[in-house]
């Protein structure tokens, strides 16, 4: 058994979070907004700003954009699927290195026809299928199907509420994945990273979220006080913990 750092992906919602992840040694970021809803497609300006940041630092394959048109489930109508395709193409034009997508059919199976459209729209970009696979009828079978669909990696908790509960299934998914990368994500704590590496996943994803009240209260118009930030201590601790056992 050899050791190597396990790649860490950080979900970030702003340029400051992306800069922190970059400077701390993260392999890549998943760029999004509204993590409280599970993540939605970020603005064009944010994609462009973070792509420029990565390019200026000479970081390749660093910016992966979540393309998700709304909260809720992953069964999309034709208008929503068309929007995902448009946003994928727009992210590519703005300098993204990859996109993070997913869709289900009404029967609970992965919507492989929709995913094929996403892969086609992505062109040379890396394609990650997100935790829609965990909401599918059979996540392990989903990995086998995605392996043949031109997808680069899958983000998964092993079909469970979090990676600890899904650890056994994550191991089965890693065994079935072949060239498809399995990235563990979903409720990941720093202390979980060694165990995730031990079952053979290829990378670990976490949001490393903290909160701040910078900017003051949102006022009488509604909303919430404070907002999410990327916690530098959590990012650095995750990357330090990633120097553990990993698949040869």
Automatic annotation (TrEMBL):
Q: Which subcellular locations apply to this protein? A: Cytoplasm
What GO terms are given for molecular function?
Answer: copper ion binding
InterPro entries with a match to the protein in the record: CutC-like, CutC-like_dom_sf
Q: What is its main location?
A: cytoplasm
Which keywords belong to this entry? Cytoplasm
Q: Which GO terms describe its cellular component?
A: cytoplasm
HAMAP family the UniProt entry points to: CutC (MF_00795)
Q: Which family does it belong to?
A: Belongs to the CutC family.
Report what the protein is called: PF03932 family protein CutC
């Amino acid at each position: 058994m050899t050791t190597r750092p396990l790649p860490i992906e950080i979900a970030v919602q702003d340029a400051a979070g992306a800069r922190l992840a970059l400077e701390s040694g993260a392999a890549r970021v998943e760029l999004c907004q509204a993590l409280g809803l599970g993540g939605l497609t970020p603005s064009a300006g944010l994609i462009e700003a973070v792509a420029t940041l990565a390019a200026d630092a000479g970081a390749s394959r660093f910016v992966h954009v979540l393309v998700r048109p709304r909260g809720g489930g992953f069964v999309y109508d034709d208008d929503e699927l068309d929007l995902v395709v448009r946003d994928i193409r727009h992210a590519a034009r703005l300098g993204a290195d990859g996109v993070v997508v997913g869709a289900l059919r009404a029967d609970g199976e992965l919507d492989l026809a929709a995913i094929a459209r996403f892969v086609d729209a992505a062109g040379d970009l890396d394609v990650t299928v997100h935790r829609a696979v965990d909401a599918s009828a059979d996540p392990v079978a989903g990995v086998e199907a995605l392996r043949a669909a031109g997808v680069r990696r899958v983000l998964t908790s092993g079909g469970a509420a979090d990676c600890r509960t899904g650890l056994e299934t994550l191991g089965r998914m890693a065994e079935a994945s072949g060239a498809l990368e399995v990235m563990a994500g979903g409720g990941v704590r720093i202390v979980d990273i060694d165990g995730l590496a031990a079952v053979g996943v290829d990378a670990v994803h976490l949001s490393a979220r903290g909160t701040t009240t910078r900017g003051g209260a949102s006022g009488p118009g509604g909303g919430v006080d404070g907002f999410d930030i990327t916690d530098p201590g959590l990012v650095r601790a995750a990357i330090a913990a990633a120097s553990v056992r990993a698949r040869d």
